[in-house]
Write a structure and sequence with these properties.
The structure is a single chain. The chain is α/β, with parallel strands linked by helices. The protein contains 13 helices and 14 strands. The strands form 3 sheets. It has an 8-stranded mixed β-sheet with strand order 2-9-8-7-6-3-4-5, with helices on both faces. A 4-stranded antiparallel β-sheet has the order 10-11-14-13. The radius of gyration is 21 Å and the shape is globular. 4'-deoxy-4'-aminopyridoxal-5'-phosphate (PMP) binds next to α4. The site of 4'-deoxy-4'-aminopyridoxal-5'-phosphate has 14 residues, from α4. Keywords: Aminotransferase, Pyridoxal phosphate, Pyruvate, Transferase. This is Valine-pyruvate aminotransferase apoenzyme. Its cofactor is pyridoxal 5'-phosphate. It comes from Longilinea arvoryzae.
């Protein structure tokens, strides 16, 4: 239908594209489709009882505050708690360094809003998180890409890409979305060292870091950067760090946080006021109420156990059902693994067939900002129950088999 708005759209809308994943979510709502598509946590482990109790308690004791507007930077006790939590991982900050956002997705958008001019180059891994590209495309970002392998960014390429003068580096060091890859210690150190040498700051997006179910935790980028710059490791501000409660408590509450220099927080606060005034007071107080007595530590262990089992089953079924020439990553945490098909295959074509067989995944090309990746796919292992994972990978194996030359 023609509307009076048709020729009035801003130029920035020309580069806006619906997320392939969000489109896919519609298909996967069909009851008998087994979906490895969305990045959805296991609903089986949502702490529903804890939410019910906290809602009741908060409404009884703090109802007037919880239903009222609150400050843009967030509920102070929650920010204090995040500061204390961060200190456990060697990130020494005060609540003034913390902004509560409506999901990390909003933090990415605010970063775009305050830093990206049309034509600015952002250095990203290839493939990288689609939601960041979606957020930054609207601000006219261009991308300099560095390929990644099983250890993270390909280090030789990192140095040459820095010469193109990126505005900042976007890095996903833990169980990356979409590949499930974790940066090695060497990759982390080199990234920090090269960024320092070229004077380029880093955005570290870490929604999955707490969900390691195998291997040793590695220091975060912000940590290594602080060590490089300040003798005592206190926060120096070269790295903006993002994390979220989406994967540890619930994505439906839309609660995440940014750690940044206070000056950057001030700019983000102004940008956020124009967006949504504040993150809902209600969900912030509820989350605080649930977490304040240490609930998250034991809950994260439960999540880790469930995800480890699901990942193992997916790996086992891939091994049994994928034809020769298909490869996949072995994530040590997080929600995703990444499949690389023989080069002549196109995962967008395969997806149509797969949906007919009632199994879904995300074709990998959407994670490549400058094209490529047609023979790749992202599989989510956190959402489906074990028996569904088995059945789904068997279906997928049969579909892919048909394309073998
Ligand atoms: N960054 C990355 C890398 C993600 O995978 C996600 C979730 N899919 C987000 C940010 C956004 O998370 P949320 O808005 O739910 O906090």
């Amino acid at each position: 239908m023609q509307t009076p708005w048709d020729h009035r759209y801003a130029q920035r809308t020309q580069r806006m594209k619906g997320s392939a994943i969000r489109e896919l979510l519609k298909v996967t709502e069909m009851p008998d489709v087994i979906s490895f598509g969305g990045g959805m946590p296991a609903p089986d482990v949502f702490p529903i009882e804890e939410f019910r109790e906290a809602c009741d308690k908060v409404l009884r004791n703090q109802g007037k505050q919880a239903l009222q507007y609150g400050p843009t930077d967030g509920y102070l006790p929650l920010r204090e708690m995040i500061a204390a939590y961060s200190a456990r991982f060697g990130i020494e900050v005060t609540p003034e360094n913390i902004l509560i956002t409506s999901g990390s997705q909003q933090a990415l958008d605010l970063i775009g809003k305050i830093f990206i001019n049309r034509g600015d180059r952002i250095l990203v891994e290839c493939p990288t998180y689609l939601g960041a590209l979606q957020a930054w495309n609207a601000y006219g970002a261009e991308y300099v890409t560095v390929q990644s392998n099983e250890n993270g960014m390909v280090l030789d390429q990192l140095e040459s890409s820095m010469r193109s003068g990126p505005k900042f580096i976007y890095s996903l060091p833990n169980f990356q979305n979409p590949t499930g890859v974790t940066y090695s210690l060497e990759c982390r150190q080199k990234l920090v060292e090269v960024a320092d040498r070229y004077g380029v700051p880093i955005v570290e997006d870490d929604p999955y870091g707490q969900l390691r179910f195998e291997g040793e935790n590695l220091p975060s980028i912000v940590n290594l950067d602080n060590k490089l710059r300040a003798q005592n490791g206190t926060y120096t501000g070269n790295v903006i760090y993002l994390s979220t409660f989406s994967k540890t408590l619930s994505p439906g509450i839309r609660l995440a946080w940014v750690i940044a220099p206070t000056e950057v927080i001030h700019k983000m606060v102004m940008a956020k006021q124009g967006t949504d005034l504040q993150t809902p007071t209600f969900t912030q107080i509820i989350a605080y109420e649930i977490i304040k007595n240490g609930f998250l530590d034991k809950h994260i262990q439960t999540i880790q156990n469930v995800y480890r089992e699901r990942r193992d089953i997916m790996l086992e079924e891939l091994q049994k059902n994928m034809p020769a020439g298909v490869q996949w990553t072995h994530p040590q945490g997080g929600l995703f693994l990444w499949v690389t098909l023989p080069e002549y295959m196109d995962s967008n074509v395969i997806l149509k067939d797969a949906i007919a067989e009632k199994v879904a995944f995300v074709p990998g090309d959407c994670f490549f900002p400058n094209g490529g990746g047609q023979n790749t796919m992202r599989l989510n292992f956190s959402n489906a129950k074990p028996e569904k994972i088995r059945e789904g990978i068997q279906r997928l194996g049969r579909v892919i088999q048909k394309y073998v030359k």
